[in-house]
Amino acid sequence: MYRLIYKSRAVQDLNWEVVERILHHSEANNALAGITGFLLASRTHFLQVIEGTFEDINATYLRIARDKRHEQIQLLSYEVIDARLFEAWAMKGIGVFDNNSAMARQLIEKYGEQDGGVRFPLESWLALSMIYDIRAIQELPEWKR
């Protein structure tokens, strides 16, 4: 089993409607491919974690890399894992936008600011820490069965 984490810059400003469309499309594709994961979006950036087999992660990442909605893709980690963190989620996501301003303030205080929003870390362990923090703030459902 493998886990891949990447960060990218959105070509256009993001909002929840755009992220929601991405999540619905990704959830359907990922369920077929056996991929699980989490997508975090700010107004200007994406941070995504995907988990699955080597072949499925590679195919999914290549498809993501060709997506014209983002650029400046930075691979933060690609590693072998013992177990999935997001086993129950074909794809879950959160948008750190105006409707989540209290959460955004907390995350900016801890992780910093970039382009007027939350700075998504370049270190994989900090990226996962941020997702755990969001889960605690938002009271997201369990991600392990």
Describe the protein's topology.
Blueprint lengths: L1 E9 L5 H18 L2 E6 L3 E8 L1 H13 L3 E11 L11 E4 L5 H11 L1 E2 L2 E2 L5 H15 L7
Parallel strand pairs: 2-5
Antiparallel strand pairs: 1-3, 1-4, 2-3, 6-7
Give me a quick take on this structure:
This protein is α+β, with helices and mostly antiparallel strands and 145 residues long. The chain has 4 helices and 7 strands.
User: What coarse outline follows from CA principal-axis ratios?
Assistant: globular
Compute the average pLDDT.
87
Helix amount: 25-40%
Q: In total, how many beta strands?
A: 7
Strand order of the largest sheet: 4-1-3-2-5
- How far the N terminus sits from the C terminus, by CA atoms, comes to 16 Å
Rounded to an integer in angstroms, the radius of gyration calculated over CA atoms is 14 Å
Tell me what the structure shows.
- The chain has helices at residues 16-33, 54-66, 101-111, 124-138, and strands at residues 2-10, 36-41, 45-52, 70-80, 92-95, 113-114, 117-118.
- With 145 residues, it is α+β, with helices and mostly antiparallel strands.
- The chain has one domain (2-138): Alpha-Beta Plaits (2-Layer Sandwich), CATH 3.30.70.100.
- The chain contains four helices and seven strands; from the N terminus they run βαββαββαββα.
- It is globular.
